[in-house]
Amino acid sequence: MKLSGKYSFFLTIALMLGMAVQVNAAALPDFTGIVRDNSPAVVKIIVEASGPQQGQGPQEIPEYLRRFFEFRGDAPSQQPRMGMGSGFIIDASGLIVTNDHVVSGADKVLVRMNDRREFEAEIVGTDPRSDLALLRIDAEDLPVVKLAAAGELDVGEWVLAIGSPFGLDYSVTAGIVSAKGRSLPTENGENYVPFIQTDVAINPGNSGGPLFNLDGQVVGVNSQIFTRSGGSIGLSFAIPMSVVRNVVTQLEEHGKVTRGWLGVTIQDVDKNLAESFGLERPRGALVVQVAEDGPADDAGLREGDVIISFDGRDIPASSDLPHVVGLIAPGTRVKAEIVRDRKQRTVKVEVGGLAADDSYSLAGGEPDGDEGGRIGVVVAEADAEMLERWNLSGGVVVHDVVAGSPAAEAGVRPGDVITLIGNTPVKSLDAFASAVEKLEAGDTLPLRLMRRGTPLFIGLRLTQ
Hints:
GO terms for molecular function: serine-type endopeptidase activity. This is Probable periplasmic serine endoprotease DegP-like. It is found in: Periplasm. By secondary structure, this protein is α+β, with helices and mostly antiparallel strands. It folds into 3 domains: 35-254, Thrombin, subunit H; 259-365, Pdz3 Domain (Roll), CATH 2.30.42; 377-461, PDZ domain (Pdz3 Domain). The strands form 5 sheets. Strands 1, 3, 4, 5, 6, 7, 8 and 9 form an 8-stranded antiparallel sheet that branches. Strands 18, 19, 20, 21, 22, 23 and 25 form a 7-stranded mixed sheet that branches.
């Protein structure tokens, strides 16, 4: 039967669409081999705890972030609670990686294998800062996973997770890498993990489980989800191999983790600050405070320096600096590229060490915002009590800010203590007046101040 030209056209289109569907289906990854080869090395972690969960429980982190460890029961003080998470075997002699929050506060830890065997586990060591823990069971010739090399992961790459969500053992979910280097500061403001973000479905019970690439290698350890309800909405976060390898090696050798420490408090560089520091665009970590006698202090770093590269790695934002510094072995001498007085220079730094029980934090902050005089502020001498409380050698406290002034536009607030205008220290009213008098119309300069005890820089543009 001969088809008319119109019908022949539509038939051709239909055949082409059918072929495209077949091609697309053939292009989709087949996960069956990865699951078959690796499921035996993925384990279920069962913990027993007698009291309230210790450490980094869900109630101690932001509402929208949840660590998906599943505890069952109301935990009366005399009655043990049972909880479940996941993990994976990295050594045939019985070494297992999981999350710190899975085993934190546990009285007893059981490991259940894919073949239903159970072993009581010893906790070799934990690292709350990275949310990783290393366990050991008394067994031999165990199946193991392959660990990917650090950094071998691309956005858009397929990944899959194996774990025990809601107690459903060895469930498999898949998705893609949505982003890398996500900063999720802890409740203490610490930020040592550049998380992998994926859209893999992760739920309670998946904590500590492996994230695989299509080569069947573990590229991360599932740790957190973004959620309002407690269930998966397609935003999950895993600890990358750069952190996992570093932490696991130290836990195995020493039972604890020591990470690199610089001894600075930092903040992001916004558009105004970038212009005031002579940067072509916002980038780097702006040093707002240097710990006395710390590594940065010994190297000659000072407030107002912008760190744009550290140990050969670019620092696009302040949150990237702790990720880099934390992985450097204490005692290592590295080069830091900084911008000071609008000029780029190199500083050599010997990285210090931050032990597991040290509390100093490489915190990142952001300026936020509300002028008289030329800049639009009414100031007074900071009293001795305030200077002592905030460990300042001098400064002027802002009593009022004139609406629409340069200071108001920059975000200066009543109560702020101004300690630096441009490169000029402000330790008194006379010093403040002298520094302001030298300013010229059109100047853009950094202003350093203390706000409720927290140091920060803001960019000030003088209009007249």
